[in-house]
Amino acid sequence: MAYVDGFLIPVPTKGLSAYRKLSKQAGEVWMDHGALDYKECVGDDLTPAGVTATFPQMLKLKRGESVIFAWIVYASKAARDRIQKKAMNDPRLQGMQDCPFDPKRMLVGGFEAIVDMAPAKKPPARKKTATKKKGR
């Protein structure tokens, strides 16, 4: 089964474009080293009715901040450990110390998938070739 690193990150809303640039660079590094999937999402519907514990509450979100929900998928925990080590030593990540958020407030965890409903990747569609009908 797959292994997933998950993240909840409070990011100043005015810094979202800088964060997007940073996360795109990081995503390219992780994918180049073998991650299966890399997603970064900004909160849109964070106070659903009837829910008593929300992401903004758990992050102690401040006025002017947005929630980033992100995950990286790996084939296994061993693959995660190997890929993470390579990614953290990748020169493309050096110089990214100027984070557009407070890393001390980021929530992080590694998760073993217990259910995985992702569709199997389909082979590329074959090109249709034109066929001529025989005249009668």
Quickly count the helices: 3
Q: Judging from the principal axes of the Cα atoms, what is the shape? A: globular
CATH class descriptor of the domain at 3-44 and 55-96 and 106-112: Alpha Beta
Helix content: 25-40%
- Stated plainly, the CATH topology of the domain at 3-44 and 55-96 and 106-112 is called Alpha-Beta Plaits
Main beta sheet: 4 strands, antiparallel
Instruction: Report the C-alpha radius of gyration, rounded.
Output: 20 Å
Q: What do the pLDDT scores average to?
A: 89
**What is the H/E order?**
EHEHEHE
Low-confidence stretches: none
Whole-Å distance between the termini? 58 Å
Q: What is the total tally of β strands?
A: 4
Our estimate of the beta-strand percent is 15-25%
Q: Any guess at the CATH architecture of the domain at 3-44 and 55-96 and 106-112? A: 2-Layer Sandwich
Structural account:
It is a single chain. The chain has 136 residues and is an alpha+beta fold. It has a domain at 3-44 and 55-96 and 106-112: 2-Layer Sandwich (Alpha-Beta Plaits), CATH 3.30.70.100. It contains 3 helices and 4 strands; from the N terminus they run E-H-E-H-E-H-E. The protein has helices at residues 16-32, 55-59, 77-88; strands spanning 3-12, 37-42, 65-74, 107-112. Strands 2-3-1-4 form a 4-stranded antiparallel beta sheet. The longest helix is centred in the N-terminal third of the chain and has 17 residues, at 16-32. The radius of gyration is 20 Å and the shape is globular. The mean pLDDT is 89.
